[in-house]
Amino acid sequence: MVRARLIVFPIRGRNWCFSRSVDPGSACDAQSANTPSTLNELWTRISNPAKDKPTASKIELAIDFATTKMSNQWSHLEKAPPGSLKSKIHGLGLRLLSRVKPSEIFLKSISKEVNQVEITYPSSLNGRLVRRRLRHIAFRGAVIHKQYLYGSAVLLPLSSVFMVLPLPNIPFFWILFRTYSHWRALKGSEKLLELVTDCPTKQNFNEKTANENRSMKAHSKENCNNLRSPWVLVPSVELQKLLNLGDAADGLSESMISAICQRYNLNLMEVVKYRHSL
Predict the structure, then answer these.
(1) Are 255 and 246 in contact (CB under 8 A)?
(2) pLDDT of residue 246
(3) What is the Cα–Cα distance from 250 to 262, expressed in whole angstroms?
(4) Mean pLDDT over the full length of the chain
(5) Is residue 242 part of a domain?
(6) Are 80 and 88 in contact (CB under 8 A)?
(7) In the predicted model, is pLDDT for residue 221 greater than 60?
(8) pLDDT at 166
(9) This prediction's pTM
(10) 45 in a domain, yes or no?
């Protein structure tokens, strides 16, 4: 069972932060071990006529292979000498990546292997409201990223005409990355919506009980009963204490955000984006 720990909290006014707590190295190592390293290995695994390898899995394997290669190339650009062409391309890429919405990054973190989500949120919030907000961001993400996926795919052939130029075709590779990113966000949206949507009757009963009794004991009982459900609500007194140190009008300061990120293993740059997101 693959469980994703989701951290949800208000960060500024009506802006809420949705982020996944990452165990360093675990997910990346598992994915790297399953991804072929050479074209020959990729072709061998794709051409394998095994019945347990559907066409969709082969396509995803090819996408993972291309993504790994792009990540390696990005690492080479990052190590380029300052002032060189590769260094300037890397700087341009960072500026473009800074415009990617944090909700997209969050949805991309929900992989197909995840079959349970543990939702940690401040103890003062209503668990039913938190789960409703998660369903909203998942449903909205599925609609938006499907539209952007089609739009990016249409632009790919148009941007390929720049291949005739002697310079790197930055528009093509950027649109290719955005196409892949929207595809991942779309799949993450669908998976998250599937996980946080009501399924068994037992979940509805437990959530109703938790709303009637706001004490931590009732929440703990709810979580114990929901261990086998696709979602588990975990109200956190510690997270609430950290939020109480922030300014209600201007939201959390970067020092408080940094403290929360360190406590729950969150990406600071991604979380800070939520302060200014619409």
Answers:
(1) no
(2) 65
(3) 21
(4) 79
(5) yes
(6) no
(7) no
(8) 66
(9) 0.76
(10) yes
